[in-house]
Write the structure tokens for this entry.
Amino acid sequence: MKVFQNGYSLNYHENRMEVKKMDNDVYSFALKTALNEIQNICPDIKKSLVFEEDGEIIAGGEDTSEKIIKRVRDSFNGIMEKADAIGSVEGIVLEGSKGRVNITGMNDLYLLTATSRNADMKYVNTVTRVLIPTILTLLEKINPAPLKNMSFEEAEEAEEAEETVVEETESEEALEPEALSPETPVNQLIIEDLGGLLVPSDTIRIDSEILSQWEDLYDGSEIEKVEVETFGGKTTQCKVKPIKDSKYKEKGIVRMPEKIQQDLEIKKGELVRIKPVVD
Amino acid sequence: MGGKKKKKNVQETTTANEPIAVEEAVENNLRESLEEIKAYDGVIGYILRNSTSAAIDLKDPTKIIDYAILSSSALDASEILSEDFDLGNVNNIIVEGKNVKMLSLKVGANKVSVFMEKEVDCEKILKKIK
């Protein structure tokens, strides 16, 4: 875990950026894996991509080069920009002498598949139109935050914003030396129910490894409380203890009593951000 | 049937020395086919163009420019996508919107786009054009 020497303002922005990047990475990775698996079980699919309405590529299967991604984005944008006359595009089928490209709208995304001429399209469609929507729905449930690959422009903007924050923070630091403190670490964890007769309703359980890392960061101070933040913006503070049950260990899980889940209007399977509270 | 006779006559007289006339014959045949297609249930209209002329027949004339631009974009995109995904020669591209779908293809030097309601069978139209 990284320890920053700058003030809280910088740490906050870097945390947000890291969390966003992690969201994007998880989403892209899950979709990329799904696309690769689809190509494995359906060798007729030569290439596959998932992208948004604005042509922003979310994930590409293996062997899909940056050059192709850029050209697909440009071509698709070219059609989308002129498609108002027929309503927004729901699908495109391009037939060639050696193969075909299918672009299918699903949820708010588009799936592109390039197949060979003799591909069994019933099988291809069955696989793609069942698997991809299922995975998208699952990802949406796990992480309802806006999810996409960070574009180069966004990355540059984020970097510029970060640099501005650094400058501002540095000038603030000159005036306020007390702002120097370790970065407040944030972990994203998936909620798992915690119940039982003797279970306190104000205590959550997380991996002991995370607690140890936090304690190291705060010079051995024991972490007894945490702040839980939902993606809907709700927060609460509660006590924290390490997970005892080995089947929940090292799985990125936070075990949470029903009462806290109700207070935060969240439920099992959703993601929350958790950070230590140090007095 | 008159159309078929016309085609035969033109081909007999132009194959060796007058390729331009053959192109004209292809265009004329296409126009005839498109006129028939336009009478199909659910067909909204068509655009036929080549380097020297264009014929547009749409039920809603206010959409001529929008449809023409979309047709051109789709055919351009089809060339690029075909090259990127190694699809060989482009046979056709179908763009399906919420309300309308468009079938575009090249026939010789002519670029054809047929606009229709979503329920219309594209295969039937393709057979008629080719």
